[in-house]
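Review form for a predicted model. The reviewer records the input and the model, then writes brief findings.
Reviewer: anonymous (R2)
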Amino acid sequence: MVLCCIALFASGCTVGPDFVRPQPPSVDHYNQKPDPSETVPVEGQTQHFARGIGPVANWWTLFQSKQLDAAVAEGIKNNPSLEAAQANLRASYDILQAGYGIYYPQVNVGAGASRQKSSPASIGSSAPSSIFNLTTVSASVSYPLDIFGGERRAVENLESLAELQRDTVLVTYLALSANIVNTFIATAAYQEEIQNTEQVIALQKEQIAIAEKQNQAGTASYDTVLGLRSQLASLEANLPPLRQKLDQAEHLLATLEGHTPSEWSPVKVSLSEISLPGSLPLSLPSELAHQRPDILAAEAQMHAASANIGVATAAQFPSFTLNGTFGQGSTSLNSLLSQNSNFWSAGAGITAPLFNGSTLSSKKKAAVDAYQQSQAMYRQTVLTAFAQVADTLRALEHDAETMQAELKSVETSKESLRLAQINYQSGMTNYLQVISADIQDHQANINYLQALAQRLQDTTALFTALGGGWWHSDNLLKTGAPN
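Model under review:
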């Protein structure tokens, strides 16, 4: 044991495992089938996936909406959650800087002045007691010899925790920007859906008024009137939930931007003012694991757990310390600096654990268990990330197909309305059929708006799933806003 300690002392080893960055999954695509290269065209527009290209930092600007850009900028500037994450990051760097102090000697100075009365009887003397003044000035130096690397592992842990806080800022920033974009899109969709529903209700009321007149004239049954009234009641019942969803979206948008709902002005925007990005990024799977903030945070957590194993291991070995003290002490200020008044000491200390009831070994086992847990959490985070990208790619494919079908429905309903108007003008049909065709046209428009909003939000989900392009911004971690 003695020879082992001498060898370790000479080598200055660092006990515990050296952290090795985990390798990403060895796959070259996200889905079981080959990843799509593009979606089906809708209204002459196809979304293309640029394989091997990551998102840009300000990815939301690709929607080409100045109001959306302003909303995101406001949120990045004022959101309390982002401010809190940045404050935690600064605190972690300060703690890390404090941890670096272990690499330097600890020097302390002290001074004291006292008036004392001695008692010679305490040492078996019969001399009379005396009263005197004592003044001391001293300096002490201590330096722990980190022979087994416990302190270095502790600093490594602090560095990993600082990385974790950095990644937490990135996670918060990415979630904030995505939530603002999604809420902004939802707000625009609800506004247009409410507007179309109100128009359908107005048409339905007009249709009921005509049916009631026809019933009074004996040309329409009362059952027809009741059926139309039932449809109207169903439509009117849809409005309050829609308005509630709009209110909630506006309140959420105000909160994300760092304002109370009462001091925030609702955004009035149409979905047609939000452009659908045509060229979409598709990072390689090998790159995703080194770009997504939540994966990086899980990796930093695993690194911190690995360093803790070294800390727990080093605690089982002896610790060494060098100490030194020099000072001046005198009963008179005049002789305080004389050679006869100085005192000093120098030495080394060693403390070795002898018996602790398996406390240290249990702590090491706990550190190993925590590391294994962090490994499992890292793998789960990676799996979830890859699944999100795969889901989003397929969702965008299906969104385009849904949009294609809804567009055909809109075109068909418009053609039906046009023919109904022509037949009415020529006297071949009554006005009720025109109103009915108009209602169907508005309902087709509502379904199309819902499909468009979903496609825009799934596009946002792809930018988020790929990490949001934070690595292209040098300013983010300092100010919370990208260049």
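Findings: Confidence is low (pLDDT under 50) at residues 1-11, 479-483.
Further findings: The first strand starts at residue 48 and ends at 51.
Recommendation: see findings above.
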